[in-house]
């Protein structure tokens, strides 16, 4: 079995280390069970100790624990932390699932003003709205954490499954998903299903139903299932509303818009807007949605099959996010480029397909590239195992090579 303590989340650790003692609050966000707690309370804590910080200087609080329920009040939280401060030394306050503390923003703001280095995690983007944003404008940095990338998934299992090919591990990855703990369950589908069910129901109830006082949970779940079944498809709130209404589930467009916002806040889905490459403008109509974990999608839809090309597209989207790219869907005349990935001054145009085994498919995938008149890099990512080749300057890369880069 894999050991969670040895899953390499080095990129996230390096980011935390780079912001240590820099005068900003570190806010780690991401879907529940993606590894935020392990990163902060185990991996980063161990790093601090190995680099000369004493146990007394580290004030670590897990607000998911019943024993800490009395700290789910901002005044009690503040008093407790102040009682633990080591005078005349740097102090590091690590708070997991900070949204469980009512009014935590004021406590965090006060600690920050007093020069204490603060790190918090939250499972809902709601924590970055309201008072925290008001009090700490420009004084916090958000570290957006995702479940395991394919490379992290492979590394988590390389000792117990070193005899298994990358191709088979990829099939397992798109089947059971990317939450760190699923790597401990081996081939036990019952345990995997129960675990995914528990995560989904916690997010559904705690982060959406309770927080937003949803009056019709069944309708919300229908919307979730619709989006999960249509990842990588161009959607709008009107299109979803019309489709569901025609199927006998009448729901208004504003309600759909609210539900999509709540799903984004809980980090269940990510939205990619469109950009007109020729017109050089952002488009308000139609977007694509991608989901944080394919295993949860498979479980919720009872392992109903999906186009493997769209599954790959979802994985590439998340990988680009993890690498720090901003991502849009490209429109060029009547054609579409799957991703415009930008970072700093770098721009990449990316097409994703399961295979380009036929000339017809190859022609379809690269035709949008040929309509783009600038000279930014064009990349075609597929699961084909041809050697890396170039088609009229378009680089063809194997997806597993890209993911393991």
Q: What this model shows, in words?
A:
By secondary structure, the chain is an alpha/beta fold. About 40% of the residues lie in helices and about 20% in strands. The chain is globular. The N terminus is likely disordered.
Record keyword descriptors for this entry.
5-stranded parallel sheet, 405 residues, 8-stranded mixed sheet, globular, alpha/beta, disordered N terminus, 41% helix
| Cα separation of the termini | 25 Å
Following the backbone from N to C, one meets helices and strands in this order, namely HEHEHEHEHEHHHHHHEEHHEEEHEEEH
Number of alpha- plus pi-helical segments: 15
Mean pLDDT: 93
> Would you identify the regions where 5 or more consecutive residues have pLDDT less than 50?
1-5
Outline, from the CA principal axes? globular
Radius of gyration: 22 Å
Can you give the helix content as a percent range? 40-55%
Strand neighbour order, sheet with most strands = 7-6-8-9-10-11-13-12
Largest sheet at a glance?
8 strands, mixed
Structural class: alpha/beta
Q: β content, as a range?
A: 15-25%
SSE order and pairing:
Layout: H1 10-19, E1 25-29, H2 36-50, E2 58-62, H3 74-84, E3 92-96, H4 104-113, E4 117-122, H5 131-135, E5 140-144, H6 150-157, H7 166-176, H8 189-212, H9 217-228, H10 237-246, H11 253-265, E6 269-276, E7 281-291, H12 294-300, H13 308-322, E8 326-332, E9 335-343, E10 346-352, H14 359-370, E11 377-382, E12 389-391, E13 394-398, H15 399-403
Parallel strand pairs: 1-4, 1-5, 2-3, 3-4, 6-8, 10-11, 11-13
Antiparallel strand pairs: 6-7, 8-9, 9-10, 12-13
């Amino acid at each position: 079995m894999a050991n969670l303590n040895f899953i390499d989340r080095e990129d996230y650790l390096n980011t935390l280390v780079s912001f240590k003692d820099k005068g900003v609050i570190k806010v780690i966000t991401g879907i529940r069970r993606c590894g935020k707690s392990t990163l902060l309370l185990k991996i980063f804590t161990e790093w601090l100790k190995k680099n000369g910080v004493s146990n007394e200087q580290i004030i670590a609080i897990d607000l998911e624990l019943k024993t800490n329920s009395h700290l789910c009040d901002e005044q009690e939280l503040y008093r407790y932390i102040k009682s633990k401060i080591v005078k005349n030394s740097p102090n590091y306050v690590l708070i997991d699932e900070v949204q469980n503390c009512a009014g935590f923003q004021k406590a965090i703001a006060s600690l920050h003003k007093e020069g204490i280095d603060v790190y918090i995690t939250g499972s809902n983007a709601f924590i970055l709205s309201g008072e925290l944003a008001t009090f700490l404008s420009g004084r916090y940095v958000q570290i957006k954490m995702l479940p395991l990338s394919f490379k992290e998934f492979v590394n988590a299992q390389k000792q117990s499954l070193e005899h298994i090919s990358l191709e088979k591990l990829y099939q397992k990855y798109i089947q059971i998903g990317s939450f760190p703990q699923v790597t401990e369950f081996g081939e036990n589908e019952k345990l995997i299903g129960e675990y995914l069910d528990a995560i989904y129901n916690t997010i559904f109830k705690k982060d959406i139903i309770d927080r937003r006082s949803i009056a019709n949970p069944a309708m919300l779940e229908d919307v979730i299932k619709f989006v999960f079944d249509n990842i990588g498809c161009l959607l709008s709130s009107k299109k979803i509303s019309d489709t569901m209404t025609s199927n006998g589930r009448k729901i208004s467009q504003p309600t759909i818009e609210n539900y999509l916002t709540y799903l984004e806040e809980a980090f269940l889905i990510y939205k990619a807007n469109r950009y007109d490459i020729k017109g050089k403008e952002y488009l308000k109509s139609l977007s694509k949605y991608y989901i944080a974990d394919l295993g949860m999608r498979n479980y919720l839809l009872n392992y109903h099959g999906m186009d493997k090309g769209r599954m790959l597209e979802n994985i590439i989207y998340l990988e680009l996010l993890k690498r720090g790219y901003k991502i849009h869907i490209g429109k060029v005349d009547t054609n579409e480029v799957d991703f415009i990935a930008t970072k700093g001054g770098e721009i990449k145009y990316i097409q994703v397909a399961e295979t380009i085994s036929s000339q017809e498919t190859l022609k379809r995938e690269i035709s949008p590239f040929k309509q783009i008149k600038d000279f930014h890099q064009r990349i075609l990512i597929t699961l084909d195992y041809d050697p890396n080749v170039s088609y009229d300057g378009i680089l063809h890369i194997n997806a597993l090579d890209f993911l393991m880069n």
